[in-house]
Amino acid sequence: MLRQRTIVGLGETLLLEYPDRTEPAGLAAIVALQAVRLGHIGVAISRVGQDKAADELRALLDEAGIDASHIQNDPDLPTGRVIVRAIGGRIARYLESRAAFDNLQSDFDLEDVGQQADAVVYGLLTRRGGQTRSEENRFLAACGAAVKVFDLTNRAGPPDRGQAMSGLELADAAIADATAIDVVLPGWADAPAREAALHLLREAQLSLVLMVEPADADSLLTAHTTDGFCSARVPKERAAFMASIVAFLHGVLNGKRTEQALELAQRVGEFTAAHPGDSVPQEWL
User: Fold this and answer.
1) What are the start-end ranges of the H helices in the chain?
2) CA nearest 29: which of 39, 18, 17, 43?
3) What is the CATH number of the domain that holds 218?
4) Does 139 fall in a domain?
5) Integer Cα distance of 280 and 101 in angstroms
């Protein structure tokens, strides 16, 4: 029988607004959502405003079975929103500026969550503000034996080296692409991916680096350890990509070899892309 794990998404929770619908977005929401769809406990840690967008988000998260009890309310800053519009035949996404997720506050209950967590995924976007960055560091330090994964591809613009390096200090594993490598390892952007990944593993004292490279309509996800590497193609679309990452974590937490975990990541990502909103078939797990 599948052992139920506690997987935490730490960071931004956003309302993704299309002309005809809304849906939850942001690293905290997506990681928790994909954990639930794999049969685990998905916890979102974030901060939203006291506005209509927050009400919509909470309703969507509750409906999905996500533990949103650790999403804080900010009395001053608005809920983060991403506006999606078609402009000149292209899809444009606009992330509103300073939002409630930039103002995460200290909460002793979060330390208990950290002690219970099996894995935590956090990213660069919420590390843009000193307040949230400080509280995330406090939470991550309290996470005990949880596997801590830092997503360097989760950003709204060019990475800031200081913010990236401070996030790596607390991580066990990292998700990176060529842009992130160029920032955290100056001069290594043109090196072969394996060499850059090995250098990052050693410099940041990580156990794993997941390198993301474009591969036609998909992404090539390569898991690098000091012992070797293996690859799989996963969907590029953000929600399906994060489903692949959470599925990979599921495999690692359950003792699968890296190749097996990547195989599962590919299947789950493809399933999520083809069946958005559906839970992953439990027999796969």
Assistant:
1) 27-37, 52-64, 108-116, 130-141, 161-168, 178-184, 193-203, 238-253, 258-274
2) 43
3) 3.40.1190.20
4) yes
5) 29
Find out whether 94 and 82 touch, Cβ atoms under 8 Å. Answer: yes
Residue 1 lies in a domain: no
Query: What is the rounded CA–CA span in Å between residue 84 and residue 250?
Result: 31
Number of domains in the chain: 1
What residue type is assigned to position 24 of the chain? P
210 three-class SS: strand
Residue 90 DSSP symbol = E
Given a contact cutoff of 8 angstroms between Cβ atoms, the answer to whether 104 and 72 are in contact is yes
Domain that holds residue 103: 6-284
| Per-residue buried b or exposed e for 203-213, using 16+ beta carbons within 10 Å of the residue's own CB | ebebebbbbbe
Q: For each of the chain's 285 residues, which pLDDT tens digit applies?
A: 678 999 999 999 999 887 778 889 999 999 999 999 999 999 999 999 999 999 999 999 999 999 999 999 999 999 999 887 766 666 656 677 789 999 999 888 998 999 999 999 999 999 999 999 999 999 999 998 999 999 999 998 889 999 999 999 999 999 999 999 999 999 888 899 999 999 999 999 999 999 999 998 899 999 999 999 999 999 999 999 999 999 999 999 999 999 999 999 999 999 999 998 899 998 888
Residue 172: burial class (beta carbons within 10 Å; 0-12, 13-18, 19+): middle
- How many CA atoms lie within 13 Å of 113's alpha carbon, on the beta-carbon side? 24
The string of DSSP letters for 16-60 reads EE-SS-EEEESHHHHHHHHHHHTTSEEEEEEEE-SSHHHHHHHHH
Those residues whose C-beta lies under 8 Å from the C-beta of residue 94, and which sit 6 or more positions away, are 82, 83, 84, 85
Entry pTM? 0.95
Q: Quick check: is 34 in a domain?
A: yes
